[in-house]
Amino acid sequence: MTRIQTPSIALSAQHVQKRYGQYQALLDASLDVRAGEIMALLGPNGAGKTTLIKILVTLISKDAGKVEILGHDLDRDPESIRHLIGYVGQDTERSAYARLTVWENLNFFGALRGMTAHEIRSQVDKLATFFDFNGQMDKQFVTLSGGQKQTVVIMRALLHDPPLVCLDEPTKGLDPLIARRIRAFLKRFVREQGKSLLLTSEGCTRHAPVRRVGERRPATGDHRAHPGARTSALQPGKGSGLDFVRRRRRAAWR
Ligand SMILES: Nc1ncnc2c1ncn2[C@@H]1O[C@H](COP(=O)(O)OP(=O)(O)OP(=O)(O)O)[C@@H](O)[C@H]1O
Ligand SMILES: [Mg+2]
């Protein structure tokens, strides 16, 4: 019997560089995300977190470096990578149509992905149940609370059942209780569905083992240094610092 092997590294980015005009936003960014883990990318405003995530999800091009996602090379096979990744950007309000209902939005974006009506229906049912969202499906997006809107945008990213999900500040600006609820959903999602998550955030990193990168300090105070810390340097633009926090599947995530 042929057994499908899941690669242990879901995402590998090596020595990624990006300039905006004269400004070097990413100098030498390297990271990997293993299958079935949550990796948090930390750094102050302007550190290059969004830039790196946008490169990984094929929204913008890099100037140099190598990226492989589930065995596909970003330069040679961006189309396959688009199918393997779900992306949640920083701009929640503009990630769905205000006047459409939640169901209409998900139906629209599913069709855009080339999913059949049956696939959309079954996946939306699954996600609405998973995120406890069945009661909100007929509400217009514009009428939802901030946390509910973000949940819709996350469901949108998960519609095509991608093995790797990249989320840019998924709980920023949300009420702490709602933020915690969304994190709990994401954590369960990783645990139960065997997915990998790469996210940028600071709120989710409390009590997390931290992988310090280069000589930079963790972005917030209460991290433990990860004993197996690697030293692949990720050097973003001037004055900024990016760090990584890695969560194992079974580790508590608060
Ligand atoms: N399209 C662009 N054109 C020019 N400069 C840009 C562009 N996008 C980002 N930058 C610059 O690149 C740097 C990195 O920006 P980026 O948005 O990646 O940071 P970030 O770490 O996501 O910040 P934040 O925490 O505020 O979201 C910043 O100095 C920013 O001004
Ligand atoms: Mg950003």
Order of helices and strands: EEEHEEHEHHHEHEEEEE
Averaged pLDDT: 80
Distance between the termini: 40 Å
Strand arrangement in the largest pleated sheet: 6-7-8-3-12-9-10
- The count of β-strands is 12
Residue share in helices?
25-40%
What's the story with the biggest beta sheet?
Answer: 7 strands, mixed
Q: Which molecules other than protein and nucleic acid are bound?
A: adenosine-5'-triphosphate, magnesium ion
Helix and strand composition category:
alpha/beta
| Share of residues in strands | 15-25%
SS field, number of helical segments: 6
Poorly predicted sequence stretches spanning 5 or more consecutive residues: 203-241, 247-254
Broad shape: globular
Radius of gyration: 18 Å
Q: Can you put this structure into words, describing what you see?
A:
With 254 residues, the chain is an alpha/beta fold. It contains 6 helices and 12 strands. It is 28% helix and 25% strand. Helix 3 (102-112) crosses helix 4. The longest helix has 18 residues, at 176-193. The site of magnesium ion has 4 residues, from helix 1.
Quick structural overview:
With 254 residues, this protein is of the alpha/beta class. Helix content is 28%, strand content 25%. Magnesium ion binds next to helix 1.
Descriptive labels:
28% helix; disordered C terminus; 5-stranded antiparallel sheet; binds adenosine-5'-triphosphate; 254 residues; binds magnesium ion; 7-stranded mixed sheet; alpha/beta; single chain
